[in-house]
Design brief:
With 203 residues, the chain is of the alpha/beta class. It contains seven helices and six strands; from the N terminus they run αααβββαβαβαβα.
Length: 203
């Protein structure tokens, strides 16, 4: 008689399938690969996961992930204190850092405003953001949020909140440019992207 308890293989597949971008079929392939290469793949991965779980924490200042708080970005006194780039997720912060084109500070919201998902301003730490802007005497806020409905509504809300605080009303608010990507061909772009590129055209 088969036990009702899930086998270790089933548990492993289920945990893998819960990761972003992985379905049950991909999870089974990965589980099989790991089980067939325990010594050089599975055990080092298990150690790396445990090590990261024990040592990595959220930065209390910006929300980044690092081994210390404040994180290495917030603790870097060569960064521009007058600029704060607001992003939705830590992955967005990492993407901007990879470019090497930005040397200011960050604030990670941890999501976007979404009535359907029940995510409101309190869930994104907007009050904490406003306090950070005042404390660091920020001169420019860069809204690096997605060009989706939720991303744009979040950007509008943050801009309105900043403008509504007398001590912060002088802060310059800018957004990432939207339009034709580098290397992009017009024939493969959607109408919204092309229209935005036309409106934001430069000399």
């Amino acid at each position: 008689m088969r036990s009702n308890a899930a086998s270790p293989i089933e548990t492993l597949v289920r945990q893998l399938a819960g990761l972003p971008g992985l379905g049950s079929r991909s999870a089974r392939r990965i589980a099989l690969h790991l089980l067939q290469r325990k010594d050089d793949k599975m055990l080092p991965l298990a150690f790396a996961l445990q090590d990261a779980a024990e040592k990595i924490k959220n930065c209390m200042s910006c929300g980044n992930l690092d081994m210390s708080t404040p994180c290495h970005i917030c603790a870097d006194d060569t960064r521009d204190l007058q600029q704060i780039c607001i992003v939705s997720q830590v992955s967005d912060l990492w993407a901007i850092e990879r470019t090497g084109a930005y040397r200011g500070r960050y604030f990670v919201l941890g999501g976007l405003l979404s009535a359907l998902d029940g995510i409101g301003p309190d869930d994104l730490g907007i009050e904490r953001l406003l306090a950070k802007l005042a404390e660091e005497r920020t001169q420019e806020v860069i809204l690096a949020l997605s060009a989706t409905v939720n991303g744009q509504s979040t950007a509008h809300y943050i801009a309105d909140q900043i403008a509504g605080v007398p001590d912060l009303s002088a802060i310059q608010i800018s957004r990432l440019a939207h339009g034709v990507p580098v290397g992009g061909e017009l024939d493969y772009l959607d109408e919204g992207t092309i229209a935005t590129a036309l409106k934001k055209r430069t000399a």
